[in-house]
Amino acid sequence: MKNIIKYNLILLAIFVFACKPNKKFEGPELSDLYGDFKIIDSLICSIDSVDFSINQPIFFKAKFTKAVDWKISIKGLSSGAEKIINGKSKLIEITNSFWTGNTSTLPMFTSENCLVSLTFLTEKDTLNSSVKVIKPKINSGYLIADFESGYNNLWTKFVQSGASMDCQIRNVKPIPQGDNFYNMAGTVNWDWLVSLIDFNANANGVDRFPLNTNPNNIYFNAMVWGEPGLDNTLLLFQFKEDDNTNGTFESSSEDQYDYQLKIDWSGWKLISIKYSDLGTLVNGEPAIPKGNKQRNPNNLVRLSVLHLADPSSGFAKTKIDYLIFTDSKSLEP
Q: What is the pLDDT of residues 221-247, one digit of tens each?
């Protein structure tokens, strides 16, 4: 009798094991679809102040009863910078809310207090916290100009004698980085050129800008303003190389590469271009460079920025700030 009972128990165990599903259920949990949303742990910052200049880490924490679409907004109370972090989960932690001090939209963060808000796509709740940025992040790269030290006398500036000409360093907010930017504005009804400024390598104390030799690894970045209500500005960046390394750019026998922008947006915008993607332009049309026809960023001796506008279009305006070369990837401000 004992053997029969033992045998039946073995058969039952085999039956139960055979009926056990061997695949995990795929798809959202029923509680995520139909359960009530409740906040288990409210929003907090991992630290209440952060120094991004030394790569100090910070993240945010919160917990809910079900997975939901959420958004964390970090707003600088002085700069107006904003960083957005999106996710979908029932737990916010270091793996999905790590912040390095970068911004989603210009301007960049500065040393300031920040409001941190957590909102949800399908829920009405809003959770708030705060964090202080002791020092902002330091961007890797070779800085050409950020205008924080005023006008460098080794830069070269030309301004047409038109109407309402305003080509100078200014500090009127909004400012994408620091406290200053370079303003370029005016009316010139006889020429496409409104003004220009040359950033010469010797202004930085070097014969040539010390850039990577590989044009595929170098990115040029600049913050450019689009004046609301105006879309007649063209901005031309010229990259002038010293192919024979004699210390000067000779337009008749050395390479110049160009990048032309039509400013058809409003506000500040970050533009980035890989050096290997630059072309040569003459009057806006593709042309053949006059030097060794090889893009050599390490031979760059001058960066020129030309503000252009159709002379029949009237007043034109733009601003530039934070001209910087970065290695391997575009600037992440």
A: 999 999 999 999 999 999 999 999 998
Query: Which residues lie below 8 Å from residue 21, measured CB to CB, with a gap of 6+?
Result: none
Hey, what domains does the chain have and what are their CATH numbers? 31-135 (2.60.40.1930), 142-327 (2.60.120.430)
Preceding omega of 289 cis (within 30 degrees of 0): no
Q: What per-residue string of b and e applies to 192-227 under the rule 16 or more CB within 10 Å gives b? A: bbbbbbbbbbebbeeebbebbeebebbbbbbbbbbb
Strand pairing class (142-145; 126-135): unpaired
Q: β-strands 39-45, 233-241: how paired?
A: unpaired
Q: Give the whole-angstrom CA distance, residue 279 versus residue 295.
A: 9
> Alpha helices, DSSP H only, in the chain?
2-19, 30-34, 94-97
pLDDT band at 35 (very low <50, low <70, confident <90, very high): confident
Question: Region 97-123: what's the mean pLDDT?
Answer: 96
Identify the pLDDT of residue 313.
97
Sheet strands (E) in the chain: 39-45, 49-51, 60-76, 82-92, 112-120, 126-135, 142-145, 156-159, 168-170, 181-186, 193-200, 218-226, 233-241, 256-262, 267-274, 281-282, 285-286, 300-309, 316-327
Place of tokens 């252009």: 308
pLDDT at 67 over 90: yes
- In this prediction the pTM is 0.85
